[in-house]
Structure formats: C-alpha cells, structure tokens
Design a protein that fits this description.
The chain is α+β, with helices and mostly antiparallel strands. The chain has one domain (about 10-80). Helix content is about 30%, strand content about 25%. A hairpin with a 4-residue loop joins strand 2 (about 30-35) and strand 3 (about 40). The longest helix is centred in the middle third of the chain and has 13 residues, at about 45-55.
C-alpha cells in the first residue's frame, strides 16, 4: 500500500527517501514517486511498474525512482517529466 512521506522537496528527495526507507529491507522493490511524497513496496518489478502506470494514467505522476532491495547491486531508474 502506498504511503505519504513527510518533508518532500525536490528531485534529490527521491534518493534520500529511498535510502531511508530501504535501510532494513532485505527483498522486493521500493518505488518512490513525486519528489518523495509517495512510496510503496512490492514483491516484483512488474507490480511496481503497474503502480506507476496507474499513477501516470491518473495524471498524478511527476517523477519516480525504482530501487531493487536486497544484497544484489543496487541501480536506480529515475523517470521525470
């Protein structure tokens, strides 16, 4: 379920929010959207993408970051207007 993050401001907030939220997580996928205002955890990348598509289709997605969780190498995918 998506939640609202406090103190969102600017594009850099996506990564900062993702780092804080992912600290204790060992698996899954974290998605942070709209400068850190929204975030959600998913079991699979496909679920994360579906959530982002839904936000986009509603016209509310401004930017997003997808962060795979766990011990593998972490890479970021950012999408902005």
């Amino acid at each position: 379920m998506a939640k609202v993050a406090e103190g969102s401001d600017g594009k850099r907030k996506l990564r900062e929010t993702a780092e804080k939220l992912a600290e204790d997580k060992k698996q899954g996928v974290l998605v942070v959207a709209n400068d850190g205002e929204l975030y959600a955890f998913f079991n699979a990348l496909e679920e994360a993408l579906e959530w982002l598509r839904n936000l986009y289709s509603k016209g509310v997605l401004r930017n997003s970051l997808i962060k795979p969780l766990g011990r593998r190498e972490i890479r970021y995918l950012e999408i902005s207007e």
